[in-house]
Amino acid sequence: MANNKIGNRSEEPALKGTAVAPSNIALSKYWGKRNDELTLPLNDSISMTLSEVKTVTTVEFSNKYQEDVVAIGDSSSPITQVEGSKKKRVVKQLNRLRKAGETNFPAKVVSKNNFPMGTGIASSASAFSALTAACIQALNLKASPQEQSILTRLAGSGSATRSVFGGFVLWHAADNSDESYAEQLYSPDYWDLSDVILVVSEEEKKHSSLFGHSLIKTSPFFKARLEFVRKTNEQLLAALENKDFKALGEALEREMFVFHSTAMTSQPSLLYWSPKTIEVLKQVRQLRQGGLEVYATLDAGPNVHLITPTGQAEKLVSYVKNLKLVNKIYHCRIGEGVRYTNQHLF
Length: 346
Ligand code: DP6
Prior knowledge:
With 346 residues, the chain is α+β, with helices and mostly antiparallel strands. Helices cover 36% and strands 24% of the residues.
């Protein structure tokens, strides 16, 4: 990776950068790693980048700070300084980027999500993608989109690797670290699909994905899952190419059930669903019988993502609004990838 040599840092006015990164929803899930340190996944995964759920992060490297400071907020909690494992994960990524940018300055990081964290809307995807991009900008690093995707992956959030790009995205499991990056398959305007996210619970999940990834081999379905997801990816790629919504929907919904079956049958068992999740999944079947083209997927949390052609999204939203089950609805279309802004958070 080519770096810009940055000379006398104390004369630099500010090594500051701000990036806005989107979340994404996996149509086929990344679940299980073959290398923890390098965040190398067991399988390829395919996602859709979301237009409305984002993290904005400002990073400043400066010798006016005594130590790294990390503050995080979301739609339901104000920006607050974090310590412990949350901070450690951010500092690890700061260290990696400080090394690339040849600086020792401590950093201040302020990050804000416009949606609740840790509830299956992949907050780490947008968060680590925004953090990495803000550092790249602050330190004036030269990184190609592929290199940026790899740097983001090394932060430990695999799904963040995909959030660098807009539209429909494929993350290659690949054979080695330099080849395990994400790439855009199709731009956001290729196919007008929506993800109507139904927030049925805003509680932080009890088990992190990190823990879940480590358990996959304990499921009796482990090998079957890997074989299944390989075939699913072929089906998803064909459905995307042909813009065949039924094929896409059937493949992504079945994949969600296989992913959750694997999590449920791990040891210990991981059960991310709530009674409301199951109720919504039943409603989705009824809606389909009534002629609406809608399919469901869930990440490692209870909230349901309803994938539908945008032309049918309004009807879907007005239907689900009437369900007593839902706390909040986010209607996302397919979004752009990471972008930079001068509107710093501090
Ligand atoms: C189920 O380790 O990328 O969402 O955002 O913390 O859950 P978290 O991070 P990560 O695991 C993602 C697991 C998944 C599937 C996916 O997004 O591919």
